Amino acid sequence: MPKMKTKKSAAKRFKLTGTGKIKLAKSHRRHLLSHKSSKRKRALRAGGLVDATLVDNIKALMPYA
Q: What are the chain's domains?
């Protein structure tokens, strides 16, 4: 049986925590920042966790994570 390939697009976007949860960086912080409030940009700076309903889908893309 050959090795399973990791989807590199998923590997670049997600990281696994020690307890098996999946971390991600929040979106909407690349451009058009002048009209967004400082509070909103500060909240986007912090990372987030993937919702529990999507964890199985993402782990399927990263078999060795």
A: 8-61 (4.10.410.60)
